[in-house]
Amino acid sequence: MTGQKVRWGILATGGMAATFTADLVDLPDAEVVAVASRTEASAKAFAERFGIPRAYGGWEALARDEEVDVVYVATPHSSHRAAAGLCLEAGRNVLCEKPFTLNAREAGELVALARRNGSFLMEAMWMYCNPLVRRLKALVEDGAIGEVRSVQADFGLAGPFPPAHRLRDPAQGGGALLDLGVYPVSFTQLLLGEPSDITARAVLSDEGVDLQTGALLSYESGALASVHCSITGGTPNSASVTGSQGRIDVPYGFFFPDHFVLHRDGRDPEEFRADPADGPRASLKHEAQEVMRALRAGETESPLVPLDGTLAVMRTLDAIRDRVGVRYPGEMLGEHAGDSAEVSAGREVTPA
Hints:
Shape: globular
Number of helices: 9
Structural class: alpha/beta
Distance between the termini: 45 Å
Largest sheet: 8 strands, mixed
Helix content: 25-40%
Radius of gyration: 20 Å
Strand order of the largest sheet: 8-9-10-7-11-12-13-14
């Protein structure tokens, strides 16, 4: 694919699909050639809005389109397994929105399918592709704050969301954790990896989804991480990483930061700022560029958003839901979901 435009297909026509497509059409090496929705009318309206030549009233036609290099899946996450799986089965490469799936079992199935077919697959964890987040990670890995002792991160929206809203709907994987909590968990695991122990508490809605959840993630190194998410109150949406020799504070919007401050013992604070050309949505462009870079390089996964890391995050989300008692229709989580059963390298491993 060296030197040619990467041809994108968009699966779904909601708000996130529109936001991502608006950024894609601005990239000179990207071409959006097809869109699919459950209804032809919705697909055609989306195609007209963005000048997309082909509109399909069904997912399968997009999955079979040989002129599509990669499909961006932006359905509700309750449909990620089905939508991404259909595309992978047809030989398409896939960028799938976060949370990657409803649970680690579904995630493991998608990863195994992609690896079996030799297809590219990546979770759309755009935070990991943000240059400033990458700089923060590099500073931590280089020992700028010494050994990491704690991470704190939160993401909360004020709401209120009515019972009929998708965030309150169990059938759509509703609740704060999967929609919002995936960011604090992913930020923590970017720096510390998968926790060795998890405790959690939540306030559940009448429908049985979490309205707010707090979790404490423990690590063999002695590090602790506190993560919180809510759909009942607007939180600072900030993050902090404390080490043995300093601290990094990321203010509002830690998942698309415009700056962060490094505090090192015995030194003046240092501020790191994003490129002025990067607006609030720039992480989506960086994410798309990473997908296209990997495809041109013949890679089947991104080193910035590795599949094993995605699986680890899904195991943690499973474990938190297991602790607080959130189940989705037809779903069975193990007694110790997320830490007693592993999904590794796209293969489910049952503990002895």
